[in-house]
Fold this protein.
Amino acid sequence: MTNDAHEGLANATTRDDAANALSLGWNERLATELIEKKYDMTSLQRGRRLGRVSRIDRGWSTILTSGVHDAVDGVERVRNIGADVAVGDWVIISDDLEKIDHVLSRSSALTRRASSDTVRAESHTVATNIDTVLVVQAATQDPNLRRIERELVLAFDSGAQPVLVFNKIDEMDADGLSLMVRRVEPVLAGVPLLFASAKTGAGLDGLRAYTYISHINDTQKSVASAPQTIALLGASGVGKSTLINALSGHDGQATGAVREGDQRGRHTTTAAELVRLVNGGWLIDTPGLRAVSLWMSNHGIELAFSDIFMLTESCKFRDCKHEDEPSCAVQAAVERGDVSSERLGNMKMLVAEELELEEQQAVHDRAYDRKGARKKPKI
């Protein structure tokens, strides 16, 4: 956080109140929004009405109003009546501390297509206000490049910085890790690649670097630090819960063994949760996803497949489908071996899924327009 943000917050509230907000990840953007909406920061803080959603259970939200570890008076449990909230949201609680009055705007949101048997597709926001998404894989498993591509699209679409992490490196030798790097390099799209072992602690410092940052002020005389929020994304069995326990310093997350036959794990995390880390940063654990269902992409596909999108600019035809058109730069790259046909095929499939979803939403909107609905439901 910049010094201006620190000063602005200090002017708005007491030192203790400011420390509580800052420890939860409060920043200048949020402070500006409160001022614009004419909320009084001091009264909100003193009344324990400003906080961050740490967990959601059956229509109830657990709200942290203090980032101090184990502060009993810094936790509120309120109803979600009429509020669209997700873990990580900054919220304002009603005067009677019974429900959420207002949800502040989000800087980022990890959103996927909800698992549902209904005909109409719905979105599900897993985590919000995150700075970095750690896409976790198990080094002991053969990397599923097509799944990694999907997870990177999801991470890019959130608005946060994706980082690919291979856990359980203590079970691999140097040659195995070297082969792993060569396998995943073609799908990285500029994303940092880290290796870690929750069991031995190797590589954890590299992960912690994303949970707390420091800014030097303009005079270069003092340093202002700010906790960051990371989210973990990955399939069951890759060791997310074990990583969280290692980063948080306590065994707060249940862990489970993987099956020897297919190296798959069972879901030990059933709901997203905001977890405080040893260094003061924050982490949102997400349930393991057996299938990565994407919601409507913003620029995620373009960013995750940036190598292919750059090639399209050299195609002869602007509407090139990269199949059998003459002078197709993408197909030429496939023939040279610069881009695998599987990667190109996966990109086309993701684009097709997005177009189909957009059409479904358009049909749904037109149906409501024909019925003369005054207000469309949020989907």
Summary: The domain at 305-370 is CATH 1.10.40.50 (Ribonucleotide Reductase Protein R1; domain 1).
